[in-house]
Amino acid sequence: MTGRPTGLHHFFVAASDVRDGVVELTGDEARHAARVLRVRPGEAITVADGSGRVIEAVVTEAEAVVRAEVRDIRETAPPKPAVTLYQAIAKGDRMNDLVAQAVEVGVVRFVPFVAQRTIAQWDERKRAKHAARWREIAKAAAKQSRSPYLTAVEDVVDGPSSLLASGTLTVVLDEASSVRLRDALPSAPPDAMVIAVGPEGGFAPDELGELRTGDAHIVTLGPRILRTGTAGPVAAAIVAYTYGTLG
After folding, report:
1. How confident is the model over 111-164, as pLDDT tens digits?
2. CA within 20 to 30 Å of 128's CA: 67, 93, 188, 202, which one?
């Protein structure tokens, strides 16, 4: 491919929807393309199948099923590091913007969790409803930013202890730390890393203790105190800038 197309509508399909030089949009993607965006035959679009493959195609049919003729394909390497954001649930609707911003700066996995200081009560019905909504937001943000990948939004979990993965660089944001995030990052990008952000009021002392025991790095973003809805995407952006995937 000679260069990345700009200004094109971007969609996601299953790998099986690309065959014999034709890509098909069905279901919600087709409705969004034909009824909301009003794509028409002759219009160029880009399509990703979630594997890192991005297809440039030209629409030939825009009805209940949208079909497009494949013109070019490019393969995109997975981001390195692959960043997982463990985010304590913020109050109100702040999580909606937070999810979108995390996707825009390249977070590949988003795990919402209930911390000790989480304000709202989260029963199973509420957890399922909001997780489904955040997946929709993540997909819309991936389309808007023309990402080759869909960010995985996990179900809501309890507490931060599940974020500790053996061998994975883990940084936990805490304003009281004397270690800056940039100083905790190795010179070469790791394959994967985890960023953990607490709720309004931060992590409880015993939560921080558990994370320290699990070899997490407790870090700060500096003297400016950011809201929980801002800190995670900012930290992910710093990581992306440090390793050259943003900026």
Report:
1. 999 988 887 778 889 999 999 999 999 999 999 999 999 999 999 998 877 776
2. 202
Task: Write down the domain spans for the chain.
Answer: 9-75, 82-242
Starting at the earlier edge strand, list the strands of the sheet with 22-25.
Answer: 9-12, 44-48, 53-62, 66-75, 22-25, 18-19
CA angle 171, 238, 157 (to 5 degrees): 40
Phi-psi sector, 38: left (phi>0), alpha (psi -120 to 50), beta: left
Rg (CA), the chain: 20
**Sign of the CA dihedral with 164 first, then 233, 53, and 76 last:** negative
Q: Which CATH superfamily is domain 9-75 in?
A: Hypothetical PUA domain-like; domain 1 (2.40.240.20)
CATH architecture of 82-242: 3-Layer(aba) Sandwich (3.40)
pLDDT, tens digit, 9 for 90 and up, residues 155-205: 999 887 777 666 789 999 999 999 999 999 999 999 999 999 999 889 999
